[in-house]
Structure formats: structure tokens, C-alpha cells
Amino acid sequence: MLTRRNFLILGGFAGLLAALFAGGGWRHALAHHGWRWAEDGNFELTGVIKAAQLGNPHGILTIDAEGEVWTVEVGQPWRNERAGLTDDLLSVGREVTISGARSADEADKRVKAERVIIDGQLYNLYPERD
Question: Taking residues 109-129, what's their average pLDDT?
């Protein structure tokens, strides 16, 4: 039997699905999370942090690399902590080298960091990846 409470719960869920799928938003959501949007292989980028938004679901850095602006996804807070990478190390003005997977779309200046090097120190976010 469909009670009022269950109807409201299902309605909320249906509304969430409708919002997610409207306008192709689901493609962006699926492309953004995980590794499907990235090409295989390692890409390296060195630049200066211009902005940092750290937290869940993962941190985002804006990096200036030789005049080009790049977006770098670093790990979730627990992953960064496990690697020894603190929020203070990801502060504006700090030079970083990022090694990871670049976006398969050449026009998209985005990298998912697997490893971060700051002041010669390696922070391995994904030790299980090559």
C-alpha cells in the first residue's frame, strides 16, 4: 500500500532523478566522477596554485602553468590525508607538480592528480595506480 510518507519519499526521489537527467546533466555527472573522462597514461603539469577548493567529493585546484589555466582534481579529504597532503600544502601561491590522467578532450585543461610533488616531496594519492 502506498502511504503518504512513501509517496513523498518516492516523489522526492523522482524529482531528484528528473533534475539529474534534465538537459543532459546526467552526462556531465557521469563524465565528471571516476576516470572515464580521462585518457590513459601519465601526464605531468607544473604550475602555481591560483585557487583551491578543498573538501568532498574531492579537492579542486586552479593552476597557472606557463600562462594556461588548468583545473586539477586532487583526492578526497581522507585520500589526501592518507598521502600526507594537508590543506596547508595546497595553498595559493605554492608551486606544485601534478602527475596524473589528463582529460581525453584536448580543449579541457583538466587533470585528475594521482601524485603531487611539492618542494621535492612526493604525495602519492593513488599508490595502486601506475
Answer: 93
DSSP string, the chain: ---HHHHHHHHHHHHHHHHHHGGGHHHHHHHHSSSTTBPSS-EEEEEEEEEEE-SSS--EEEEEETTEEEEEE---HHHHHHHT--TGGG-TT-EEEEEEEEBSSTT--EEEEEEEEETTEEEES-TT--
pLDDT of residue 61: 96
Query: What is the band of 42 on the pLDDT scale with cuts at 50, 70, 90?
Result: confident
Residue 107, C-alpha cell as written in the block? 580543449
Rounded Cα distance, 56 and 40, in Å: 25
Cβ-proximal residues to 74 (8 Å cutoff; 6+ apart), any chain: 54, 58, 59, 60, 61, 80, 85, 90, 113, 116, 125
pTM, two decimals, is 0.70
How far apart CA 130 and CA 126 sit, in angstroms, is 8
CB distance 61 to 100 below 8 Å: no
Q: What pLDDT shows up at residue 29?
A: 40
